[in-house]
Write a structure and sequence with these properties.
The protein has 1 helix and 33 strands. With 401 residues, it is mainly β. The protein has a domain of 175 residues. The strands form 9 sheets. Strands 20, 21, 22, 23 and 24 form a 5-stranded antiparallel sheet that branches. It has a 4-stranded antiparallel sheet with strand order 4-3-2-33, with no helix packed on it. A 4-stranded antiparallel sheet has the order 7-8-9-10, with no helix packed on it. The longest helix is centred in the N-terminal third of the chain and has 5 residues. It is globular and about 50 Å long.
C-alpha cells in the first residue's frame, strides 16, 4: 500500500483548487475573449476533427504571489483567448500539522461544460458562452474539510465526498494525533438537492476514499487516497485508482493491482494507462514501461523508455487510444500503436516540452520549460514545434472534443 507520507512535487499541482461563485455573485467574473490574455502565436485554424474551434478548460492562479493557488476556471481556444472565465473562492486547505494537504481535483469537464467547486461546497458549471449555473451543493462547514466530486459524462448525476480532519492531525513528534477522521458521501442530480448516502468514521488515515472523475464505465476515485504529504516525486500523490458505485458511493474495487500497475490516466472508454517500476538494463540506464489496458485488465499495448536515472513518468493516452505520451528525462516521447516513436518539442535543454494530456487524438498539451511554464501544444504532424498559448495553467480537459 502506498504511503501518504510522500509527494511534495505533485502537491503543487494538486493543492490549488478552483473557487466558485454564482453568476449573480460579486465574486463571479465572466470574461469574454477581448479582455483575455493573447497567445504569443497567431490565431490557429479550427481543428479539422472538431465541429468548431477546439476549446479546452484550465485552472488559473490569479492571486499575486500564489502561482499554484488556482482560483479561476477558464474555457480557452488554441488562439490563447478565453471564451469564458469565472473566478471564485477556493476550496479550503486544512491545517494538518506537520504535513501538507493534497487536495483532490476541484474542477472537471463533462457534457460540454466545466464544473467547479467553491469553498462552501457549491458546485457550478461554466459553459462556452459564459453561463454560470449552480448544479449541486456538498456542504462544507469548516476549514478542516476536503471536498472531492465527480460528474457523470452527461452532466446529470454528481457524487461528492467530504473528508473532515481534526486540526493538526499529524504531530511533528509522534504518530497521528488523537481524533478520528470522518467521510460523508453525497449524491445529487443536476440542479437538485444533495442526499447523504453514508457517513463513515475512520480511525485509519490510509482508508480514505476520494472522487476523481467519471468515465463510460462509471465513477472513479482513489482508495487509498494520498491526502497529506511531506515530500516526494511525480506519482507519489496519485493514490490507488478505484471504481466507485454510482448509486451508493461505495468503493467497488481497485482498477488494477497497485503492486503491479500504477494507474496514471484513464481513457473516456474506461481503459487505463499503467506505469511500471524502472528496471536497470545492460546499458547502465533504466527502462520504464507504460502500458495501456482494457477495462477487464487485458493489455492492449505498451512501450518502454530508457532514462539514466529511472525518471520516466506521467503517461497519458490519446482519446482514440492509438497513441500514448510519457515524459522521459525532461523529454516527452510519443508511441503509436504501430510501434512508431518520436519526441515532442525542442531537444534543447531548458526549452523542452512537458506533456500534460491530450487536446484531441492528434494534439498534445503541456508546457515549455523556458516560457514561465506557459501552456503550449504540439500537433503530432509537426512534433518538433511547440506553440505557446501565452498563459500558465492546469489543464482539465477538452470541452468540445
Amino acid at each position: 500500500m502506498r504511503s501518504f507520507l510522500i509527494g511534495l512535487l505533485l502537491l503543487l499541482t494538486a493543492c490549488g483548487q478552483a473557487q466558485g461563485g454564482a453568476q449573480s455573485s460579486p465574486l463571479a467574473l465572466v470574461t469574454q475573449s477581448p479582455t483575455a490574455t493573447p497567445a504569443t502565436s497567431p490565431p490557429m485554424s479550427p481543428m479539422p476533427t472538431s465541429p468548431g474551434p477546439l476549446l479546452f478548460a484550465v485552472l488559473e492562479a490569479k492571486s499575486p504571489g500564489s502561482p499554484y493557488a488556482w482560483n479561476t476556471v477558464a474555457i480557452a481556444g488554441l488562439d490563447g483567448y478565453a471564451r469564458a472565465k469565472a473566478t471564485f473562492i477556493p476550496l479550503p486547505s486544512p491545517d494538518l500539522g506537520c504535513m501538507g494537504s493534497v487536495l483532490p481535483p476541484s474542477a472537471h469537464v463533462a457534457a460540454g461544460r466545466v464544473y467547479f467547486a467553491d469553498g462552501k461546497g457549491v458546485v457550478r458549471s461554466l459553459s462556452t458562452t459564459g453561463q454560470v449555473t449552480t448544479v449541486a451543493t456538498f456542504p462544507l462547514t469548516t476549514s478542516q474539510q476536503m471536498l472531492s466530486f465527480a460528474v457523470s459524462p452527461d452532466g446529470s448525476h454528481l457524487l461528492g465526498a467530504v473528508l473532515t480532519v481534526p486540526a493538526k492531525y499529524f504531530s511533528c513528534s509522534s504518530s497521528p494525533s488523537a481524533g478520528s477522521l470522518s467521510l460523508d458521501v453525497y449524491s445529487a442530480q443536476d440542479g437538485g438537492a444533495s442526499t447523504l448516502l453514508y457517513h463513515q468514521s475512520l480511525s485509519d488515515a490510509s482508508k480514505v476514499m476520494a472522487l476523481t472523475g467519471w468515465d463510460a464505465v462509471g465513477p472513479l476515485g482513489t482508495y487509498p487516497t494520498v491526502w497529506a504529504s511531506q515530500g516526494g516525486g511525480p506519482g507519489s500523490t496519485l493514490g490507488v485508482a478505484a471504481r466507485i458505485a454510482a448509486n451508493t458511493g461505495k468503493v467497488l474495487g481497485q482498477v488494477a493491482d497497485p503492486n503491479v500497475c500504477q494507474v496514471w490516466d484513464m481513457a473516456p472508454s474506461g481503459d487505463y494507462v499503467c506505469l511500471g517500476a524502472p528496471v536497470s538494463n545492460s546499458a547502465g540506464t533504466y527502462d520504464t514501461t507504460a502500458s495501456l489496458h482494457a477495462v477487464n485488465g487485458a493489455e492492449i499495448s505498451h512501450f518502454s523508455v530508457a532514462t539514466p536515472d529511472g525518471s520516466a513518468c506521467c503517461p497519458f493516452v490519446a482519446p482514440d487510444e492509438q497513441h500514448m505520451v510519457a515524459s522521459a528525462h525532461y523529454v516527452s516521447v510519443v508511441s503509436a500503436s504501430d510501434g512508431t516513436r518520436f519526441n515532442l518539442g525542442s531537444s534543447v535543454p531548458g526549452n523542452q516540452f512537458s506533456a500534460a494530456g491530450w487536446l484531441d487524438s492528434a494534439t498534445v498539451i503541456g508546457a515549455v520549460s523556458s516560457s514561465s511554464q506557459n501552456l503550449a501544444f504540439v500537433r503530432l504532424g509537426t512534433p518538433g514545434t511547440a506553440i505557446s498559448l501565452g498563459f500558465p495553467g492546469k489543464f482539465l480537459g477538452t470541452v468540445n472534443r
